[in-house]
Every structure is written in structure tokens, then in C-alpha cells.
Design goal:
Helix content: 25-40%
Order of helices and strands: HHEEEEHEE
Family: Belongs to the PP2C family.
GO molecular function, one term: protein serine/threonine phosphatase activity
InterPro entries: PP2C, PPM-type-like_dom_sf, PPM-type_phosphatase-like_dom
Largest sheet: 2 strands, antiparallel
Shape: extended
Strand order of the largest sheet: 1-2
Pfam family, one: PP2C
Keywords: Hydrolase, Magnesium, Manganese, Metal-binding, Protein phosphatase
Structural class: alpha+beta
Number of helices: 3
Strand content: 25-35%
Length: 109
């Protein structure tokens, strides 16, 4: 999974370098859901404002019911998220009226 995300990051960087500034001015999001069918364990994760939604099916009608969002959006204008970003060494900036993640220096290891 880590390699898949790194590959996508490379595609976006190549697109930025050769074709368009769009990857540099747009946000990034991802939502992941892993299910261990043996144990029934469900693990979800998200970055940005993508979400994982769980909808249970009514066994009689097959229609979904009891629909719920399992993740919360990570928005830099939310005080707790801004604090998390700053604690990780990042910055939060307002550009063209939109709050954006500035720089975040991550250890690549």
C-alpha cells in the first residue's frame, strides 16, 4: 500500500513537472478500507476530505440501511487538525481565501 501511494505521488510530480501546475494547487485525498475476512476486522483510514462509508444491507430486501461515515475529514482550518499539522512540523497557510497545508517535512524512512 505504501508503494502504491508513493507511485501515485510520483505520477503527480511528473505531471506537475511536465504538464500542469494543477497537482501543486489542488488538494490530495485518499480513503482506504481493509477487511480481514478471517477475523472480521475492519481498518479504515483517510487523508484529506475523502471518506469511508459503511452501509449494512437488509438481509430481506438487500437495500442498504444503517449507513454511517467511519472517517472524519482532515481540514487544516479545523483547530485540532491545524494543531496536529503544526506538531508534525508543518505549516498552515491561507491562499486565495482557502486554508491549505503549507509545508510538511516528513522523514521518508
Amino acid at each position: 500500500m505504501k508503494a502504491a501511494l508513493a507511485d501515485e505521488d510520483g505520477v503527480l510530480l511528473e505531471n506537475f513537472m511536465r504538464e500542469s501546475v494543477e497537482p501543486a494547487v489542488s488538494g490530495s485525498t485518499v480513503a482506504v478500507c481493509l477487511i480481514n475476512l478471517t477475523t472480521g476486522e475492519l481498518v479504515v483510514s483517510n487523508l484529506g476530505d475523502s471518506h469511508v462509508i459503511l452501509a449494512e444491507r437488509d438481509p430481506k430486501t438487500e437495500y442498504p440501511y444503517h449507513i454511517r461515515r467511519l472517517t472524519q475529514a482532515h481540514k487544516p482550518e479545523v483547530p485540532s487538525e491545524e494543531a496536529r499539522i503544526r506538531e508534525a512540523g508543518g505549516t498552515v497557510e491561507k491562499r486565495n481565501g482557502i486554508t491549505r497545508l503549507g509545508e510538511l517535512q516528513l522523514n521518508p524512512s
